[in-house]
Amino acid sequence: MSWTLSVMKNRIRNLCTVQETSQLSEDNLLAYLNRYYTWQLPKEIKPIQLETGYEVTLSDGTETYDLKGTFYDTYVKLDPLAYISDTQGRKEYQMSVYYNLEDFYAIWPDGIDYTDSDNTARPSSVLIYNNELLFRKCPDDTYYVNFKAMRRPLVYVSAGTTTSNSFANDADIPELEEWGQIIVYGTAKNILEEMGSLDDLQTVSALYEKEKSNVHSQTLNWYNQTRAKPKF
Q1: What is the dihedral of CA 63, 69, 72, 73, to 10 degrees?
Q2: What pTM does this model have?
Q3: How far apart are CA 24 and CA 16, in angstroms?
Q4: Phi/psi of residue 155, each to 5°?
Q5: Number of domains in the chain
Q6: Is 231 a domain residue?
Q7: In sequence order, what are the residues at sequence separation of 6 or more whose Cβ sits closer than 8 angstroms to the Cβ of residue 52?
């Protein structure tokens, strides 16, 4: 069986007992499914197949870099592992990565003009906060920072070779077809949390947790077969 969008939508409707579009419109069902696949699956399942790298080019005198532009078109999140180098594509020095303001400013006190030439150098720390990257010290030259990142999963349009970031056509399939069942359970769980019965939610939640274990086992097998390759 091929895990097409059509198959997944039918199974979700059956699990949630919302077979009629008057109960749940096609547009809303598609929105639930894409939201789970695009954002929840990478964060909750963490498939190793989605691990990648994200490179930022730092400029002399610029300490803040915006992630709001095109970052989320391709990526889901940055992991707390980053390297900086004078040469593009290399990972020479590991950086300290912070998500917490207090921890960051305990090391790099606020109120100092880090863009002043006396305070610039090769950055050793970065704060990831509010969709921005803040580097300390402020760069005194061009540097290349490579983060370990998690990208968005792909959709194969009409089961062909063209890819998209979301499902739209009934013949579309996920990047890995073995993710079809977890997409069904994850989407159904979200729908039932908002509009279903407690009994149905408990049943689907149990199925979801069981399938998560199956996917993690598949991911581990895939990793063991490819562990000699760099992760990013």
Answers
A1: -140
A2: 0.84
A3: 10
A4: -120, 130
A5: 2
A6: no
A7: 75, 149, 150, 151, 232
